[in-house]
Amino acid sequence: METDFILRLLIATLCGGIIGLEREYRAKEAGFRTHFLVALGSCLFTIISINGFTDVVNSDLKTSFDPSRIASQIVTGIGFIGAGTIIFQKHVIRGLTTASGLWVTAAIGMACGSGMYEMAIATTILVWICLELLYILIHRYGKRNTNIVFSSPNIETATKAINCLREKNRDRNPHVEIIKDDKNYYNVTMDIWVKRKYIQENTIGILTGIEGVEVLSIG
Fold it and tell me: What is the model's pTM?
């Protein structure tokens, strides 16, 4: 019995590690160690929930036994970890995919803890395909919300730059924020929706072609 429990833990950590490696390679908020530990912890909690109190149940004490009681709290608990990976910065939300990956990793760990090895391995493969293969497709054909900050010595040049970026972003109305600093420069913050492979061409390329505009950051 103990050997079977150890096998479940090993499979859970292997599956979680595979997902974590992909996240680590992409330099995401939660990487290899986080997914490794989430899968391992979820598996152990599930094993304890199912098998940890059999001696009490088999005793003469009048007790009620619900093997899903501890395991059900994993779903709630993993939400706190996932929420920590979600970042809202400059009108852009990041980390949702990583948070979802942690949620699925916990489910994989629970499946291993329940002895459902085939389901756990199949889910790991599907998650990897989703994260890796779809990343390639989306990076090539998809669009992303890009936050760009640039400065201009006068409002006329800033307006010209804003209009040029809007021409490349007709399908959505970009958020624009203009702040005048102590040096009387106009700092413009914009959130634009452009194709990933054209970010360099449709943002920095446009702005550097306008005299007086300086790109401060892009992300």
Answer: 0.66
